[in-house]
């Protein structure tokens, strides 16, 4: 069982790691306004298997090392003992990046997620929401100055894991 203290301590360590990563001199993340689209797979531990997800995000890079992002993601639809369950999420996070080579960078994220859960069983519908800490790590590759891609492993909640591929356009 994971305790709140354990999650808080892990979140503090992850935030410190993200800030250390962002403080690196050699960074390659996007500076200025950028936007992107994403697709991937989400696994919700209590529900049946992986489901496809898609989303979009916008961000602002204060410099090549630190950015803030706002994103929206549709995580998919699961069946839980005859009940259809849908999960949607809005995220706000800080992203820190560090160059590994000329076009390749490592990034980490830490932030806040607001999840909306909808359940439908035989015409009866229920809704709920959940707040959670978000953290993730990934690699970004810059094709040309205004177009890059990302691959990321993200934990939008303690019992949810997602793997995402994204395209990012810098304005």
UniProtKB/TrEMBL annotation:
Residues 15-167 form the Outer membrane protein beta-barrel domain. Pfam families: OMP_b-brl. It comes from the Bacteria. The keyword Signal applies. InterPro entries: Beta-barrel_OMP (IPR027385), OMP/PagP_B-barrel (IPR011250). Residues 1-28 form the signal peptide. It is found in: Cell outer membrane. The keyword Signal applies. This is Outer membrane protein beta-barrel domain-containing protein. One of its GO terms (cellular component) is cell outer membrane. Keywords: Signal.
């Amino acid at each position: 069982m994971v305790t709140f203290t354990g999650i808080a301590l892990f979140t503090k360590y992850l935030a410190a790691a993200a800030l250390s990563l962002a403080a690196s001199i050699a960074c390659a993340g996007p500076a200025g306004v950028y936007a992107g689209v994403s697709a991937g797979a989400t696994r919700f531990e209590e529900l049946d298997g992986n489901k496809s997800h898609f989303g979009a995000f916008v961000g602002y890079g204060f410099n090549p090392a630190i950015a803030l992002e706002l994103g929206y993601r549709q995580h998919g639809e699961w069946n839980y003992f005859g009940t259809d369950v849908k999960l949607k999420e809005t995220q706000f996070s800080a992203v820190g990046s560090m160059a590994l080579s000329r076009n390749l960078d490592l990034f980490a994220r830490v932030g806040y997620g607001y999840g909306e859960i909808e359940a439908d069983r035989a015409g009866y519908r229920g809704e709920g929401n959940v707040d959670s800490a978000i953290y993730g790590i990934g690699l970004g590759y810059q094709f040309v100055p205004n177009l890059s891609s990302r691959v990321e492993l993200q934990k939008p909640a303690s019992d949810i894991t997602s793997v995402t591929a994204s395209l990012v356009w810098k304005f």
